[in-house]
From TrEMBL:
Residues 420-447 have a biased composition (Polar residues). GO terms for molecular function: GTP binding; phosphatidic acid binding; phosphatidylinositol binding. Residues 408-447 are annotated as: Disordered. This is NadR/Ttd14 AAA domain-containing protein.
Length: 447
């Protein structure tokens, strides 16, 4: 029981220790970013948090008399380089202040982040700037901030509320606002925790959705004060995949998962290694059932900590190897996982698409990418749980199979029925895949 006690201690310590949460709030013109900052600040200050707000660097510089129309291409590129340097220095100043707060949780809200600087120049210009400054894009995008939230411009779906009044640095018409919104969102494709807050509701609900997504990502329980209804949905993707040209702008990552020993039905523990072009990040995730609710804690790790925890790997599970493709489509952020060998035969050719959304039914289906051949909605289906998919032994009568996190020993009597039904659902879905090797079309270095 020592292992279980240790995991519970780790989980409790992570929930209790002071947090520093670095949030990027980005989006298109007139998306509610300014109001959102204010409301987030008030909400977390009322919870006892210290909140720092990093001002938008572009607004600070442009309000000093800069007019892009007057700049040559060389001058515009140099301006973006200086903007990025200034932004990093400003953010680092607030990050240092946050680190100096010893007795309170700290939220740092960045009004746009480093990748926003890439949205309005060419890829070649951006890469030249990174080279001159000695910066690594993957490190800067994926590891600098805990979370990125994109507030969709009112020019997409709430046109009657779009205005450029009361904002000295804003002059965009509807079409330009839509284009800037799309480019800003695409700049962050690849970050592991991106949320898109759209205009499918009224503005007050939009702001509440924003606050809820921040609190949820932190693992904070806000009850029903800010009910938003956003949930993760999961669909099977049937092969073969279309060519890369069919996708919008995307990033591919190599992802490895390892399940760790827990000695409890009530808890799952796993490691994640996520990387691209030789740059890796490491996370320890612990999930536990508490009073009928699922509590999940994510702990960033160093490579050394990751390697140490690997010694606790659960031999009942295969390591899970995936290619994860991240892309934005119709203001929705998607992650598509493609299972790779070595794996159990049940996973060969398996591809799953996930997103977080408040939409259901036909509204949800209309938002899904039409260039993918999607199969069943398998949200919450134990047959498509990574925990079960990674089990080394067949599911039949396998007491390690997890229908739900529970310590009810009586559920053992249902193992045969539950596992048979799950196997039937998985088999039915896999039989509809026209190409079991479709996943091989993806490579981790895709663009």
């Amino acid at each position: 029981m020592k292992l279980l006690t240790d995991l519970e201690t780790v989980m409790q310590r992570e929930q209790n220790k002071t947090k520093i949460w670095k949030l990027v709030l980005t989006g298109g013109p007139c998306g509610g970013k300014t109001t959102g900052q204010s409301r987030i600040s008030t909400f977390f200050e009322n919870l006892g948090w210290k909140v720092y707000r990093v001002p938008e660097t572009a607004t600070v510089l442009i309000s000093g008399g800069v007019n892009f129309a007057d700049l040559s291409p060389e001058a515009a590129e140099k301006f973006q380089e200086n903007l990025l340097k200034t932004m990093i220095q400003m953010e680092d100043t607030y990050f240092d202040l946050a680190n100096a707060v010893a007795d309170r949780n700290v939220l740092v809200i960045c009004d746009r982040g480093t990748m926003d600087a890439s949205a309005f120049i060419s890829r070649e210009q951006w890469e030249r700037i990174l080279a001159r400054l000695g910066l690594d894009e993957v490190e800067m995008r994926d590891n600098r901030y805990n979370q990125v939230i994109h507030m969709v411009t009112a020019a997409k779906g709430a046109e009657q509320f779009y205005t450029v009044e009361h904002h000295a640095a804003r002059s965009e018409g509807l079409d330009e606002a839509r284009e800037r919104d799309t480019r800003a969102a695409e700049a962050w494709v690849g970050h592991p925790y991106v949320d898109i807050v759209d205009n499918s509701s009224d503005f007050e609900t939009k702001i509440n959705n924003l606050i809820t997504r921040v609190a949820w990502s932190m693992g904070l329980d806000v009850g029903d004060r800010l009910r938003s209804g956003a949930k993760k949905v999961k669909f099977v993707v049937n092969g073969p995949l279309p060519g890369d040209h069919a996708f919008p702008s995307f990033r591919d990552f190599t992802v490895h998962h390892h399940y760790l020993q827990t000695n409890s039905r009530m808890m799952q523990s796993r490691l994640r290694k996520r990387g691209r072009k030789g740059k890796w990040s490491y996370t320890h995730t612990i999930r536990k059932q508490v009073s009928g609710q699922m509590i999940e804690v994510k702990i960033p790790l160093t490579h050394r900590d990751y390697s140490t925890l690997l010694s606790q790997e659960d031999s009942n599970h295969f390591p899970v190897y995936k290619t994860r493709r991240c892309f934005l489509f119709q203001n929705q952020y998607f992650q598509m996982d493609i299972y790779k060998e070595p794996c159990h035969g049940r996973c060969k050719g398996l591809m799953l698409l996930e997103t977080y959304t408040t939409l259901t039914g036909e509204d949800l289906l209309k938002r899904l990418p039409p260039f993918l051949n999607l199969g069943n909605n398998v949200t919450g289906d134990s047959a498509f749980s990574m925990f079960n998919l990674s089990l080394r032994d067949d599911w039949a009568n396998n007491k390690k199979f997890c229908h739900r996190l529970s310590d009810d020993e009586d559920e053992d009597e249902d193992v045969k029925r539950v596992t048979k039904q799950a196997q039937n659902r998985l088999d039915a879905s896999m039989s509809r895949q026209s190409s079991p090797n479709g996943s091989q079309l993806l490579t981790p270095e895709g663009e």
